[in-house]
Amino acid sequence: MSQSFLIQQLISGIAIGIVYSLIAIGYSMVYGILKFINFGHGAVYMFGTYVSYFLWLFFINTLGWGVWPSFLLAISISIVVTACFGMVMERVAYRPTRGKSRLTTFMSSVGMALLVTYTMEFLVGPQPRRTPELFPGVKIHIGGAILTGQQVFMCVVGIVLLILLQLFVTRTRQGKAIRACSEDMGAAFLMGIDVNRSVSTTFAIGSAMAAVAGTLVGIYYSAVYPTMGWLAGLKGFICAVTGGIGSIPGAMLGGMLLGMGENLGAGLLASGYRDAIAFTILILVMIFRPTGIIAREQKSSL
Amino acid sequence: MKWFPRRVNLKWILFFSSLLVPLVVKSAFVVHVVILLGIYVILTDALNFVTGFAGQLALGIAAFVTIGGYTGALLMLNNNWSFWMALLAGGVAGFVSGLILGLLSLRLRGDYLGMVTLGFSEIIRIVAINLVGVTRGPMGLPGIPRPQIFGYLFHGDVPYYYLLLALIIFTHVTIERILFSRFGRACLAIRDDESAAAAMGVNAYQYKVLAFCISSAYAGLAGVFYASWTTLFSPDSFQLVDSIMISVMNTLGGIGSLLGSFPGAIVIGSLPEIFRPLTTGAGIASLRLALVGLIMVVLLIIRPQGMAGMSIDPVYISLEPIRRLFVRDEEKVKENKVEKP
């Protein structure tokens, strides 16, 4: 167990962890505002990945563009399409159940996850597809550890997006409206805030982040497949819970902890147990600190 | 015609008609599907016990089926236990693992509990895949022995059908008895209002854990039966998607109803068979799961109480039309006269 091995595992853990926190944002914000776990988020993540994957290949192969311009255009279109998809999902499956118990909405989101995931599997087939590479052969040496260009790119994109999101939520009018709704939806409604619009915006932001995260992970593992959303969605949820659900810095912290814990554990134990570590973290957090590391000042809903 | 009953309890109709199924249905394929549906009925009942009666959302029932299945299969293969002892051991293994998870997680409520149980089920699957020395990993355990009773060896689907029927009856009768006991009433009280139940002196946590254990024990039994029936048990026999599907069956049948597991399991479980003529190959599995999801969403919006509602009362079917056939005309005339003075 050399020191460079540890550093290597930690840095790759941070890279994947930041992407997890992008997924966690979707859970965290939706939970903050509607108080339910959006199980369908993993399916949105998968949907966004496929949209950008197919557009990317279309631009490269049919239009003959370069890898980077096609990537940038594809991911931009995917962000918009997935954001709309998230809003439609909320409108169709979650709004009609809003007045009923939280469990009804949760089960409805489980149904939505099945519907989206397996419709996609029916349409494109279950086999994993290889993605093109963004940084072929780029390696960066930091203190004995070797980083790929993709890992650095993931870190940069993730941190930029999280900072932008934090600014949006704290500085803009719509962000203020979202915060008001998540504190007390009824009172926000009485103050003249358009609650439905705030909820839709929340879903749009979460879905857009999921699309970016999915595309980055798809390139990182060079595999895109219809059931990729199950595990990624669950891990995003674990990050949201670990960091403190409803808080954006918490999601980031949770993501990094999970990414590092997973990579270290997989390196120390056996790589097959990587996903089991994530779920063990979930159960431990739930037992010992169900409010997460950064707890919001509100009555715990647990 | 005094002796002819005016109404009959639905469960007797179900019982006698299910006894006749293998005599009427000659197709081996259909019997095979019916057995699979029967396993779903047991699992839906087990889930209903914890979700419908104790009101705790659990999404990890596949974990207990896997634990029970592996326990039974390994005991039969390595220690030469008989099927019946292994069946019992599978139930005990389900109970004990349910106790461990329940003690850890049942302080949580609602969707959080759902996520933790789901995570537990994934952990079990990953451990089963990686413990190659014990479970042979993803290849699974082949050649699991068949049950034997008084020298008669079970082979073919028909004996398994009757064995399964016995298990279903056992599950239903015990669940009904438990439900109308002190313990069952306490569970219903916890479901309806946990604070009020606690104020009445019900120790909610204890009762919830026990309900969870009982539910897991049934799942363990079903796991051993499944392992022996297919003679192959692998980590992928029951996984996340199956847990969710059983949850959908429960919702469709009616969360908290006694007989709702039958319509729920039969409708959802037979979906792939209905689609078989339309598509081929891997398409069926995806299409069926997509449709299960669609049914779930539509159901929760339109009729969240499911097909049977939340009724735990016995269901009676009126026999009046059949009775009329036997009643002589004069009696009919008399009846008419009485009705219209």
Which terms would index this structure?
heterodimer, A: 302 residues, mainly alpha, ABC transporter involved in vitamin B12 uptake, BtuC, two-stranded antiparallel sheet, 11 helices, 2 strands, 74% helix, globular, disordered C terminus, B: 341 residues, two-stranded antiparallel ribbon, 16 helices, 4% strand
Textual characterization of the structure:
- With 302 residues, chain A is mostly helical.
- Chain A has a single domain (3-288), classed as ABC transporter involved in vitamin B12 uptake, BtuC (Orthogonal Bundle), CATH 1.10.3470.
- Chain A is 74% helix and 3% strand.
- Chain A has a two-stranded antiparallel sheet.
- In chain A, helix 1 (3-34) packs across helix 6 (173-183) and helix 1 (3-34) packs across helix 9.
- Chain A is globular.
- Chain B is mainly α and 341 residues long.
- Chain B has one domain: Orthogonal Bundle (ABC transporter involved in vitamin B12 uptake, BtuC), CATH 1.10.3470.
- Chain B is built from 16 helices and 6 strands.
- In chain B, strands 1-6 form a two-stranded antiparallel ribbon. A two-stranded antiparallel sheet of chain B has the order 2-5. In chain B, strands 3-4 form a two-stranded antiparallel sheet.
- In chain B, strand 3 (148-149) and strand 4 (152-153) form a beta hairpin.
- In chain B, helix 3 (61-78) packs across helix 10 (204-230).
- The mean pLDDT of chain B is 81.
